[in-house]
Specification:
- The chain is of the alpha/beta class.
- It has 9 helices and 8 strands.
- The longest helix has 15 residues.
Length: 219
């Protein structure tokens, strides 16, 4: 699909599946929690399809009978405990992300992360990987509604002190497409993340890129 690039000075990034490949660690943490309570393990592809709506929804989808399972709370708590300790075991930047972020920063672009991951995990990952390039990182907390509600994006724009009129949202999922729409931002969908081209098109993607460097075509 051809992208008609818009002019932008601000980029709001999704985290998992967009900037960082976190799937392996999410999968291992999910199966650790399931295994701890004697529940069936999930495949990597199953977990890939479960992510995007926050970790509570991930575990709800992974646990048999979801929240109706009497052990759901214990599994979720064990997942959170384990993931916070192991969220960087296998997680890594996608190819081209580091160079692209540095160039965008050099070009004067303002950037923020909005993620349905727990704020503690978002803060840790931001400090390790993006402290020099991305100014703001907002995760799930009691203070803000999860995506696809526009709250995280609006909070990020406020913290950056910028208007949404020259901002763009970049993400890898249907949740990101909906978040951008609800926030009144154009959306760039990436093809290196957790969802494929056909899925994204079926959920309304209008602009897709195959490499991070494509964001540099618009200065």
């Amino acid at each position: 699909m051809h992208c008609r690039y818009m002019r932008y000075n601000t980029i709001i990034w999704d985290l998992d599946g967009t900037l960082l490949d976190t799937l392996q660690d999410l999968w291992l943490a999910t199966n650790h929690a399931l295994r701890t309570y004697g529940m069936p393990q999930r495949t990597l592809d199953e977990v890939r399809n479960f992510v995007g709506n926050g970790v509570r929804k991930l575990i709800e989808r992974a646990v048999p009978d979801g929240e109706d399972n009497p052990l759901f709370g214990e599994v979720f708590a064990e997942f959170k405990r384990y993931y916070v300790e192991h969220c960087q075991d296998n997680t890594c930047l996608y190819p081209g992300i580091s160079e692209t972020l540095k160039q965008l920063k050099a070009d004067g672009k303002r950037m923020a992360i909005v993620s349905n991951k727990l704020q503690e995990g978002v803060t840790e990952l931001h400090e390790k990987w993006f402290a020099d390039t991305i100014e703001v990182a907002i995760g799930e907390s009691s203070d803000v509604r999860r995506k696809p509600a526009p709250d995280m994006v609006e909070a990020a724009l406020e913290r950056l002190g910028v208007d949404k009129s020259d901002a763009v949202y970049v993400g890898d999922s249907d949740v990101d497409i909906a978040t951008a729409r609800n926030s009144g931002l154009p959306c760039v969908s990436v093809l290196w993340g957790f969802r494929d081209r056909e899925f994204l098109m079926a959920h309304g993607a209008q602009c897709m890129i195959e490499k991070p460097q494509e964001l540099l075509t618009n200065k």
